[in-house]
Design goal:
By secondary structure, this protein is an alpha/beta fold. 42% of the residues lie in helices and 17% in strands. The protein contains 26 helices and 22 strands. Bound molecules: iron/sulfur cluster (SF4).
Length: 633
Amino acid sequence: MNAMLRDTTLLPIWEKIQRGERLTLEDGLTLYRTGDVIGLGKMAHEVQKARSGDAVYFVLNQKIEHTNVCVLSCKFCDFAAKKGDARAYEMTSAEILARISPDIKEVHITGGMPPDWPWERYLDIVETIHRHLPDADVKAFTAVEIDFFHRKFRLSVEEILRQLKAAGVRTMPGGGAEIFSERVRKELFPQKIGAREWLAVHKAAHRLGIPTNSTMLYGHIETLEERLVHMITLREAQDETGGFLTFIPLAFQPGETGIKPRHRFTSAVDDLRTIAVSRLMLDNIPHIKAYWVMLTEEVAAVALNFGADDMDGTVGGEKIAHDAGALSPHALKKEQIVRIIRDAGKIPVERDVYYNPLILHADHVVGKIPYLNSIPFYAHLVVPDAKILPVVPRRMGMLSAKGMMDAGLFSLMDYLAQEDRLEPLGFGLASRDQIKSVMLFSKEGWQGLEGKRIGIMDDTATSVQLLRILLENRYHVHAVLDRLHGGVNDLRDFDAVLLIGDEALTRNKCGLPGFDLVYDLACEWYTWQKLPFVFAVWAVQRHLDAERKAALRNAIESALEAGESDFVSIAGAHGRRIGLTDTETHEYLAGFNFRLGEREWDSVHAFRALQGPELARVRELNAASAKPETRNP
Ligand code: SF4
C-alpha cells in the first residue's frame, strides 16, 4: 500500500490506521486536502475490505413521506408545504399501506411535521404496516420528528420511543442531523434542533434497543473543519452507545433554495473524498452508505471502491431529494443494483434493516467470522474464484442452509445441525483451557441464577447452548435467557450477561460495572469434561467437487501456516482497536488450537450427547430461513 500513495503526507496516517490508532481532525484535513484522491480511495477501500470483505449491502425498501405539511421552514428545504398550499398532501394509513409491495423488507418513514395530527395517527401508521406486512421492518421518524412529538404531545422522548417500538418500529433513520455546527444551524435552520438534542434522541433510542443511522448533510455552506467535527462527534457518541448501524454522507441538493453555492451540486470528487474520509475517521461505525439517490448511480458505483459498503436500496417513492432536484431515477430495480455491485467486483448482499444478510447474489462465497480469533485463518486466505463474506456465525449457518455459502468457519451448533451436508476440513477454533472471549458476567454465583434473567448475545448458537448446558446439566439451575441486541441495551435489568467475541474480550479487560463475577465458559467446560471446547468447525458443502474442496483445504492450510507464524503482525491492529496490547493479542490467540484432533472431536461428541431440543430448534431455524418467502428471525 505504501508504494501506492503518491502523496507522502498520507503515509503517517496510513501507518496510524495500521497500528489501530484513531485519526484526529488534523489527519482528516490532510485526507480531505490531498491531491492523491486515488491513494485516499485505496486506503478507505482497504479499511472497508477488512471490515466487510467483498460484501456490499442493499435492501428492498420503500420510502414513505406521509405528509409534506410542516410547521418549520428550513431554508434548504424544497419539500415542505404549508397547510392549504396546492402542493400540500397528507396520507392516511390505508393510502400508505397501498403503496407498499409485499416483497419490501424495509419501510422508511419520514416526513413533514403537521400542526394538527394527533399522536395516535403516527402510531396507527406504524401499527398498520407492522400488522399487514410483518416481513417488512419499519424504520421510522428522524430525531427532529421525535423531538417534535415530545414537545407537542408532552411525552418524554423515552416514552415516545417506547410506544413507537411497541407499535413496530425497529430502527430509526439518521436524518435531521444536517451538520453539527451552531453557525450553520443559525444560518440555515434556526428553528430545528441542534446537535445536543439530535444526539440525545439517538442515545435514548440506543438505550432502548433501537439501533439508528447517522447522517451528515454536506456541500452547502459548511467548512471542512465542520464536517470533521461532525464525524468526530458521532464517533464519540458511538463509543458511548454502539447503536449506530451506518453513516450516510448526504450530498446537498440545492434545488430552488437559493443557498450558496447557487445551482451547484457537490462534485463527484468531493463526494468520493467524503465517503473515503468518513470510512477512515469513523472507525467504530460498521457501515458507510453510498446513497445513490443523492450521489447518482455512477458516483455511488465508484464509491463502492472508496470505502462504502452499502448502496441503500431500491428506494421506491422518494420525494424529498427529488423535490430538491436530485438527478437520479426515482427507484432502481433490484437487478440494476445487483449489476452495479457486481460490476464493482463485490458480492451483492440483500439485507434486512439490521444488516443481516438475507440473500447473496453470488456464487462461491466463503464465510468469515468477524472476530479477532479467526484472523489467523483469514489474514492470508486467498481462495481461487471465491469471495469472502464476513458474517456472524448464526447467519453463516442460515446462509449455508439456503445453499448460498460454499464453505466457512461454522459455529459448532450450525455444523452439528447440518452435518449431513457439511464436510469438516480438519480446522476449527478450539480452546486449550480458557479463552476469555465467551464470558458470563454475573451479579450472582451459578447457583444464585435460578429463575434469574440472563442477557445473551446470540451471534452464535454454540455459546448460548454451552451456557444452557452448564446451567442445566452441571449446576442444575434454570434461568431465563433473553436476547441482547449487541451493544445497544441497557444492562441494568439483567442478572447476568453472556458476551462473546471481541465484546467479551474488551469487557473482560475493562470489567462490566455491576457484574462482579466473571466466568470463562471454555474454562468451565474444561474443568467439567476435562476436554477442550470446540467453538467452530471449518466445513465445506459436501456436494462440491473434489477439486474445489482440495483447493479450499490447501488455501486454509497455507493461510494458517502464515498466520500462526506471527499473531501480532496479522492481528495486532485489530487487537489494539478493541483495547488489547500486542502481548494480550498474542496470548489470546496462542490460547486456541486451530487444528482439530482426536481430543477436540471427543469434545464435539460429548457436546452432541448433551443436546436437548436446542439442536432441533437450530435445524428448524435454518430450514425456515432456507425458504425464500420466510423472514429471518
Ligand atoms: S427540512 Fe424537514 S423540518 Fe425542515 S421544513 Fe423541511 S420537512 Fe420541515
